[in-house]
Amino acid sequence: MTMDTNKKLAVFIASAIVLAVLPFVVGSTLGNSWVRTIDFALLYVMLALGLNIVVGFAGLLDLGFIAFYAVGAYSFALLGSPHFDIHLPFYISIPLGAGLAAMFGLLLGTPVLKLKGDYLAIVTLGFGEIIRIFMNNLNAPVNITNGPQGINLIDPIQVGGVSLGKAIEVFGFNLNPVHMYYYVFLFLTVVVVIMVYRLQHSRIGRAWVAMREDSIAAAAMGLNIRNIKLLAFALGALSGGVAGGLFATFQGFISPESFGLLESIMILAMVVLGGMGHIPGVILGAVVLTIAPEILRDVIGPLQMKAFGKMLVDPENARMLLFGVAMVVMMLVRPEGMWPSKRRAAEFKDAKKG
Amino acid sequence: MSILDVKNLQVSYGGIQAVKGIDFHINKGELVTLIGANGAGKTTTLKTLVGMVKIAGGSINFDGKDTTSIATHDFVRNGLVMVPEGRGVFAKLTVEENLQMGGYYRNDRDGIARDIAHVYELFPRLKERYKQLAGTLSGGEQQMVAMGRAIISKPKLLLLDEPSMGLAPLIVEKIFEIIQMVAAEGVTMLLVEQNAKLALQVSQRGYVMESGKISMSGPAKELLDDERVRNAYLGG
């Protein structure tokens, strides 16, 4: 037993050290653009973990999850930019945005309570598009979102008078914004991981599994199906909203373009490929699917030039092609995901037998 | 003193009347069985009791309250628990998690832990397998999980819908042993069964249901000896 805890502690300390120095190691070897990619990976981890509550835990297929990311991002942007000339500090606007996103989660959840499977997917997909189109068109008659032009010059996070938007020097180290945001993102990612982990092992987590499996028996146990579904939508949206706010301040610019259907699908792919319902799997899925395209970007172009002497397929398209192939192969070979939970693996084993 | 009092209960599915005005009652501490052929309206009656099917007429009085307008998920809080047909065990939850679901509506963590320990005493088999997914258990063990979970819900009345359905004869006997064990715990039960013989053997009283009506009722022993019951349900 003590061996086990010691081992766990060692793993914990080792990963803490790795995560602490990661941006500097990566920054000095591969360049700061890669640190930026890692920052994005953390954002996607938060998003994927949020969607995992809805899809993985509660078993509700949501194809419009990006809407909550958009709500979080726009809340932050409107509350911290020259657009309305409001400049709320991040520790107010991020919780506000997350709360608003959770409310939108309830707003989506209420009409779809009775829907299942394909029907639920279609309605959520529509919801995601509605939000995006609203953002695109809410510039007239009253200019709220500045339409397709998006919102620019969003405030960077300020911690104790230090803006994370500009590079600073600490003890001779040159701290870039990408480094500083890394730690903010890492901190909030850890908070989200702890939250979803605690949720999964709480009575609410059990209730989600029970509901997914047999809603009649679950109701007979005293479980209010309506509330427990709405809770899944709201908590998932909450984490999406946090990620959205961070995205807005990190980029300094947002426009409706960033919140398209493809993004929703990407996040869903992270959850499914990683291992639905399994927190480490979902984290892995998010990291792999954020980093792999960046590696491919560096590889596909030069490879084509070498092989054919010219660009046959645009790298961006080739990326989607490869991504599609990878998805198909994955679904054939390992439908339960890269790193599934025991529970999920058992479900797939059952399905194969049956 | 009766815990459940049903008067002139009527249920319709569309234009078809499935339950055509039945009366029955259950006293505290009793084990009562409701037998009858397929489609006689037994399961419908049970579902009506926990609000899964709307009643068309009549009254249900449970523990001094009219329960006809309570939502399904609130019945547990009122002390009415059902083990649905096919047991309703959550296959992808472990044995222990299933038992914890029984305490879902309760707020006394220590009390739940105590009751789970008590269930493990009743069914040592479950203790051995507490970490196993319930779906990997045998039919009899799953029934233990379902019954154990129901005990943890602290029911004033436990409704059992066809507990022996689809199980091998040897396991069926085991399940009736389990039912008797739970009855010995002082749990009041309404048992709905097609296996009339075993059901009547463990019960104090019985009702016989035939195409939506109660055709006979009385002490279980008398029903077991009744000529008509023997011919119709006990295979002569």
From TrEMBL, chain B:
Record PROSITE patterns: ABC_TRANSPORTER_1, ABC_TRANSPORTER_2
Signal peptide: none
Pfam families found in the cross-reference section: ABC_tran
GO molecular function, one term: ATP binding
UniProt KW keywords: Amino-acid transport, ATP-binding, Cell membrane, Membrane, Nucleotide-binding, Transport
Residue ranges constituting the ABC transporter domain according to the UniProt record: 4-236
InterPro entries named in the record: AAA+_ATPase (IPR003593), ABC_branched_ATPase_LivF/BraG (IPR030660), ABC_transporter-like_ATP-bd (IPR003439), ABC_transporter-like_CS (IPR017871), BCAA_Transport_ATP-bd_LivF (IPR052156), P-loop_NTPase (IPR027417)
Family recorded in the similarity comment: Belongs to the ABC transporter superfamily.
Entry protein name: ABC transporter ATP-binding protein
Species name: Vogesella fluminis
